[in-house]
Specification:
The protein contains four helices and five strands; from the N terminus they run βββαβααβα. With 99 residues, it is an alpha/beta fold. The chain has a single domain, classed as Ribonuclease Z/Hydroxyacylglutathione hydrolase-like (Metallo-beta-lactamase, Chain A), CATH 3.60.15.10.
């Protein structure tokens, strides 16, 4: 299977080309690599809408690591129905970030 990746620029702090996520379609929906920080959810929503998608279309989010610029919006996306995939070492921190 071949995947086509699209770069979604999140315009972090209204600055282009600072933080981005990757979007790809798979057999069960749309997935992201990284979520970006929580403050960029409106930019993510717009980038998705520009491509004909909504936040609710995201089925999976694959996190490379748990820094806020990569994973800060993961909790929000999980509440929208996305499954979050993260390395087992990072999973406890994502579930309980206060620890």
């Amino acid at each position: 299977m071949t995947y086509r990746f699209e770069v979604l620029d999140l315009h972090f702090r209204d600055i282009p080309h600072t933080i981005a996520v990757y979007l790809f379609r798979h057999d069960k929906g749309v997935a992201l690599i990284e979520s970006g920080p929580g403050s960029t959810v409106p930019s993510l929503q717009k980038a998705l809408a520009d491509r004909g998608y909504a936040l609710s279309d995201i089925t999976d989010v694959l996190l490379t690591h748990i820094h806020l610029d990569h994973a800060g919006a993961a909790g929000f996306l999980a509440r929208q129905g996305a499954t979050i995939h993260v390395h087992p070492v990072g999973a406890p921190h994502m579930a309980h970030p206060e620890k």
